[in-house]
Amino acid sequence: MANKVKPQKENALDSKDVSDNKQKEEATRLDNSEQQMQEPLPKTEETKETPGKLRQICACPPQGCLASLVTNVATVVLFWAVTWTLSGDESLPGRNIFGLIFIYSFSVLGGKLMVLIKIPNLPPLPRLLGMLLSGFLIRNIPFTNEIVKIDVKWGSALRNIALSIILALAGLGLNPEALNKLKAVCFRLSLGPCIIESCSAAVISHFLLGLPWEWGFMFGFVLGAVSPAVVVLSMLGLQARGYGVDKGIPTLLIAAGSLDDIVAITGFNTFLGMAFSTGSTFKSLLHGLMEVAIGAGAGILLGTFICFFPSRDEIHLAWKRTFFIMGLAMFSLLGSRYFDIHGSGGLCTVVLAFLAGIAWAEQKNAVEELVAIAWSIFQPFLFGLIGAEISVVSLNPKMVGLCLATLALALTARLLATFLLVTASGFEFKEKVFIALAWIPKATVQAAIGSVALDTARQHKDATLEQYGLSILTAAFLAILLTAPTGALIIGLAGPKLLHQTRPDNADVKRIQSIIASPV
Fold it and tell me: For 148-202, what is each residue's pLDDT tens digit?
């Protein structure tokens, strides 16, 4: 009997456990159903994207692009309001501070809009083109032309500061090891096309535009430089896809382009000193050479100083070095104007930056990054103010036509010279054609030195010299406007057709893509 009772008890316990488990399962099911009723229904791909975008646009407070727009506008307004409380009437429309803030803001906006124009398989259009066009539109639209008035001295000072920064970057960017190992073809490509185009433009401008020889060579060296901002990004884009890598064409053009710019800047400064010296032609030539010697000597002296000071054991070393190199660069450029040795400042800046880069070795990278940030800040000033110097009303159509003719003929001479100079260097016919075409874009150097002659002429208050300076500035403006986007398009389209493609390294592709995406 006991044995019979025991199984009955066990069955009773089992049935109780089963009922308890069922109750727990039912409660869990009810909880889950309640949670499902509270959670939103699953969205399809379409319903996920559209409401998300609408919520972002219509969100309160705003988010995304709208929030960024409000923040940027508020930043500009707040900056103006603070400067107004400090300077009073000087910040009102029609005065200097208002004009500078207005041009800077719209130059930045123009640069960002230019980057939004994307063409498949081509590098982005340069920001500087949007900045240049913004300044040009501000100057030539009746309403903005009335409220934006900038004193000549203020504009000249800001352009010279921007010029000193870009020259310091050029000096720091020169790699002594690469220069040491330059092959004959790279050396020829660095010097030959620039000098030939500059001399061609000098002769043509002398006879077409009536410029004196010193001004003709200044005109030529302004046109003679290629644009690192366009060429480097375009070459890196092709290199990331493996075009021309087997022959090292992207590396060749990037290395040669840096030295090409130094040659153009040095030549321009030499003839700038000659143009504003008084006396015979021989005396002017001697004066120009003297300014080159002064610039090189001062650059060596100042460069030696900043090699040792600040010392390596100081804190915030990169910031202090950046302050010294930028301060000395600005002092060299502005001081050379003050002491009437115009050709010395630019060369001094390049030399001192180059010597500092050699002494600092790998540590110069931190300084280079900080100087590049300063350049990104002053870049809108440079290109915006250059564009604002060009007035359609004051332009002589005949002068514009002659400037375009000079630019076209000089550029043709450069293309032919480049093709001939890379002959017998192991390149195929198509590759030589591409190298010649890649030397078309002009922008950064033209903006940096294009207005220097005009600013210097204004200091001398000579109407004839100002007209010569305006011719050089007009040619620089047209060169940027026409060759920067055209050159970028030609490089992007011709590269895949004229160069051999190899499989690129994944690490190099990631590095290059990060450089291309950089805002500087």
Answer: 888 777 877 887 888 788 778 777 876 666 556 556 777 788 788 999 999 999 9
Would you say the C-alpha torsion 470, 166, 456, 225 has a positive or negative sign? negative
Q: Is residue 378 part of a domain?
A: yes
Helix ranges (H only) for 117-151 are: 127-140, 142-147
Domain count, the chain: 1
Residue among 418, 287, 413, 260 nearest 344 (CA): 287
Instruction: Report whether 173 contacts 196 (CB < 8 A).
Output: no
Q: How far apart, in whole angstroms, are the C-alpha atoms of residue 125 and residue 485? A: 6
Asked, for residue 228, whether it belongs to a domain, the answer is yes
What tokens does 448 get? Answer: 């940096």
Q: What is the CATH number of the domain that holds 244?
A: 1.20.1530
Helix (H, G, I), strand (E, B) or coil at 432: helix
Q: How far is CA 222 from the centre of its chain?
A: 17
- Give the Cα separation of 114 and 112 in Å (integer): 5
* Rounded distance between C-alpha atoms, residue 351 and residue 219, angstroms: 23
Q: What residues make up the domain containing 206?
A: 152-516
